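INSTRUCTION: Work out how this chain folds

Fields: amino acid sequence; protein backbone structure tokens

Chain under study, with its fold:
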Amino acid sequence: MSFQRAARAALTGQTGLCRILAAMAVVIVIVPLLAGLFLSCGSSSSVSPNGPDHNAYLTLPTYGSVALLHIDGATGVITLGAETPQVVGTTPTGLALLPSKKFLYAVNSLANSISIFNVALDGTLTLSGPPMPTGGSSPNAAVIDPLGKYLLVTNNLTDNVSVFSIDPGSGALSQIGSPVPANSNPAQILITHSGKFVYVSNPGIGAVTVFSFSNGVLSQLENSPAPSGSGAFGLAVDASDRFLYVANQSASNPSPYLSTIGNVSGFNIDPGTGALTPILGSPFTAANGTGPTAVTVDPSGRFVYAVTTGSSYSIWCFTIDPTNGQLAAVTNSPFSLAAGGLFVLIDPTGNYFYIGSQNGIEGYTYNPATGVPTAIAGSPFSTGVEPGGMVLSE
């Protein structure tokens, strides 16, 4: 077991729990970008995305830096661009990009700070002043509201969320009040497309903390946290803000899925309050597989992907029933293809999705009619060390 996974397990009581970093002054070995292994998914076909070329950013926790990535819109191939100067002892993990694409924020888990970068027209990054303290310990993940006015950061060891206002001209941060309690070991954080509701996963208690959000103020709902499942970690919401999906890494399942460890909870989102109620039939699981930690919804709202480490039954793909949010496994899911549990995100400019693994970034295209994934030529794309977090600049 790597130090990174051991640290996560120590914080949450869940072995192998993803990306919850202990606040120890130890260098963590982390991630990848540019190798040549072509993986095929049988005879399934996919539609060529032919989107525009654009950039992405990736934290390299071991190096203490952020890498610029270039994405070929026609192929989905990733190439490595410039890397920010390495700063020992920072361990950047989570990333958030302002909608204007003028400023990028990197959360430094060991330094308990946030680095602010100016983004040039060519995508290169320049540090803007000294890092900003988060006000909490072991910050892990970050998100910016849809209007680009506020940055929210989870603090894993102090069990809270910090909220900052963003200066639109300089990108400078100003903390709003004291960090807000968010139950035990808050990990991932998600804000709905409307900007009205915020959800935070709590792996140690297998739950999701629910907030309303207005004018920079987080207010936890009375019935929060909402029970999800053991090791609840990854979060995803559909484009209509009707359904929330949560990857429960270590949850057990009833017959006939006793051999599968982990599942995906589905919740209806109350449009007025943000409160969560379980979708009928939730949680949903795969016929085989172990430990889903990251989850995403494709831009069309047709598919949910949950991913696990390794290459056996590692990519779970479900269709979403648009009337009630129920999930059903697509034909031949789960797919035994190389994956990972660090992150998964879909590029809305093309039907590509990228998975963070120990080996780098696994890249796939998927059939928009069936959801079946096919590896991008050249995947995995290596950065030399295990990655932390990734954000796209569409």
